Structure formats: C-alpha cells, structure tokens
Amino acid sequence: MVTNFLTDAKQLDSASVEVRASTAPNSKREFVKVIVVGSPKGVVKIIHTLYRLGFAEVTEWSPPTPTANSGEVISVMTRLVLLD
Fold first, then answer.
1. What is the strand order of the sheet 73-82 is part of?
2. Phi, psi of 20 (to 5 degrees)
3. Domain boundaries along the sequence of the chain
4. Burial tier of 43 (Cβ tally within 10 Å: 0-12, 13-18, 19+)
5. pTM, full prediction
6. How far apart are CA 16 and CA 47, in angstroms?
C-alpha cells in the first residue's frame, strides 16, 4: 500500500511511503516496517512531516541509503504494534 501524506504530490519530490507487515502465527504483536523511497530531499521532507504529525521521531529512521536508481535513497523505520 503506497500512501502520500501531503495533498500536493509535487511537494513530495517523488517520495512515497510504503507499509509492509510481517506477522507471526498466533502473535498479538507484529513488527511493521515503514519504507520511504525517493530523492534525498523528498525522503527527508516525508520523515520530518511524519514527525510533525506525531507519527515517529526523526531518530527512529535509518539513515538515507542510496538505491540502485541514480538520485534515489531509501530510509526504513520498524515499529512493534499490538494487534487487536
């Protein structure tokens, strides 16, 4: 699932947020990885926007790491969530 958190997609500099879950059978908790991929400026903008929204501390994200695509970086945050 890819979600843009800003109403103006041009503000994102081609960055997006993807949430992927990994579950263990019969577990009431799971780790969820939030992945941001885009230009370095776009990734930092998304991380700071999510911080201002109270979603995650900036320090919870991995350092932006270059991908195989020129000018693109990736940053990951993992959170343990309690399932209902």
1. 2-3, 16-22, 29-38, 73-82, 65-66
2. -130, 135
3. 2-82
4. buried
5. 0.67
6. 11
pLDDT tens-digit map of 29-75: 999 999 999 999 999 999 999 999 999 999 999 999 999 999 999 99
Q: What is the mean pLDDT of residues 16-33?
A: 71
| Beta carbons of 46 and 4 less than 8 angstroms apart | no
CB 50 within 8 A of CB 40: no
- CA angle in degrees (0–180, nearest 5) for 73-29-56: 40
- The C-alpha atoms of residue 49 and residue 26 are separated, in whole angstroms, by 34
Top-confidence residue, 2 or 63: 63
Question: What are the phi and psi torsion angles at 56 (to 5°)?
Answer: -160, 150
Both tokens of residue 12? 């994102």
Q: How far apart are CA 44 and CA 23, in angstroms?
A: 28
